[in-house]
Amino acid sequence: MTSSDDASRAPATPYRAAGSLQGRTILMSGGSRGIGLAIALRAARDGANVVLLAKTGQPHAKLQGTVFTAAEALEAAGGRALPLVGDVRNDEDVAHAVAAVVEHFGGIDIVINNASAIDLSTTDAVDMKRYDLMQDINVRGTFLLSKLALPALRKSDGGHILTLSPPLNLDPKWAGKHLAYTMAKYGMSLTTLGLAEELKSDGIRVNSLWPCTLIDTAAIRNMPGGDSIVRAARRPEIMADAAHAVLTGGNLAEGTGSPTGNFYTDEQVLSAAGVADFRPYSLGAAEDRLVPDIFL
Predict the structure, then answer these.
(1) CATH code at 127?
(2) 259: how many CB neighbours lie within 10 A of its CB?
(3) Which residue in 74, 151, 266, 285 has its CB near the most CB atoms, within 10 A?
């Protein structure tokens, strides 16, 4: 298992930040591992306060890390961390997390909706318990965490909600491949679309971020043939750098016309930040051999 010191060590990437998250307070759903942990570590290296609301309080047989080992890594990276064991599907857990962040750090500047469940089964094959799980975590969990954090975000001098969900696309291709999962992810994206419009007058930015390629995560590795699939994936650090660029502003307003209501991709964001070579993010596969992510 990776130690907190190993996890906190900054990887070599081509991204050079134009801004900083120092002193900002982030509330993230999930974050014990994978993309969420990478995003949290990038923020911690700036000196951010990061609160992780995640279910994994005890070691899991198939999943590396817990919310507590993640918090140790964040502290080792230079941030301040608050680990909270809870389920984004549970109203009381989410309400407690929001209250704990405000009590511990004095407010909330950023909410990151990272927690998500995946099942790519067709309609015939999908188990309805899995369907309900995806709806509860992806859609309801994103809506609930965003909703309950709004009073604190309104008090921030730069409130931001960032959700890891894809651009909305009414071409039936993706719904035809895996309708249940597509509905769940697009529900997250609809939350971005609606909240961005609803919160304009409050000065709260709301955006989504999605990878152009597969990312090496436990979810991918645990799929059939996952160990071979991830060889054509990129490291989570590409999403961490892209999230950092979105959350610190960067040059993203150029070409979008608005700092809110956007569905960014990692490559789009990092290109705007001056990254021209994405090869350092790969696990060794040539760029033309990388597997594109779904929904794009």
Answers:
(1) 3.40.50.720
(2) 16
(3) 74
